[in-house]
Amino acid sequence: MVASLLAKLKVIWGVIRRPSVHYSLGFLTLGGFVAGIIFWGGFNVALEASSTEEFCSDCHQNVYHELQSTIHYSNSSGVRATCHDCHVPHKWTDKIARKMQASREIYGQIIGTIDTPEKFEARRGTLAKHEWKRLKANDSQECRDCHKFDSMDFTRQSTRAAQMHSTALASGEKTCIDCHKGIAHRLPDMADVKDF
Amino acid sequence: MKTRKILSVIALVGLSMSAMAATIPADKVATLRQVPLDIEPTPPVMPKVDNTDVEKARSYPMQPPVIPHKIDGYQIDLKANKCMQCHSRQSSTYSKAPMVSVTHYMDRDNNFLATLSPRRYFCTQCHVPQVDAKPLVGNDFVDLHELMKKEK
Lengths: 196, 152
Known about the structure:
By secondary structure, chain A is mostly helical. Chain A has eleven helices and no strands.
């Protein structure tokens, strides 16, 4: 068994390392280049397709509807922060890591972990805590991707906002998610959540 | 079946007759609608919520203090009370927000409770933010204090 497999591998290796007989070097180089573009493009298209509102709201429709009345979806300037802006890291390596982690969510989709509003409601606390933990760990990176601390003009904020941001946030004692839980979705039962 | 049909027709005619008879003259209708019913007026611009964070004086001693900030999207339900994130006893030292009055921790027999009393849980039942709007109806409220001064 192992011997025959090794023999096969040896044949393949022989083919790979032998120079091409029929195709020119130019064809192989350009062909490889074009194929690379197609595959890399296809990969990115799939990656982006799995980050759209339509894709997410297929299962998480409850929270998507909740988002629509919040400031991150409907506001005066028309800028919209949608699902992936907050829930998928922007840095490539982190994004791929999160996408790999999300393979578990495919399993959830197959067995129907949250396929009814009741089931979703029962898991709301667990799911919310995952995200709070993630944002706490990365110092609310996905908030800061848009809300740059250095660009915050405290004089244009309300008094209490300026007071909090210039002390607790500036010193790093607190991070965005510590105070701004429930900014985009309804809160789960907060009875056992610290500072609430 | 047939008698029922006839009866309902009679009732309908009767009803419409009485409606015609009871026409109310336009100037007698107490309404805030300034235009005829078949015309859709342009609504006034929505006033801005006062967000100054400056506490407003109460008009009378028992008045629930008004909220001097925006409360858009604040969730107050069985699961969470967003107001209490800052105004609870535990948070107010840190948040510098006024702690909810001690009466909110009492039940109706004046027993003190460890947490917010359920009958005082829904903040916006009594406390409301203020908008910068022209009052729709006149108001001749006089502060009790002013009234007492006049009496003297």
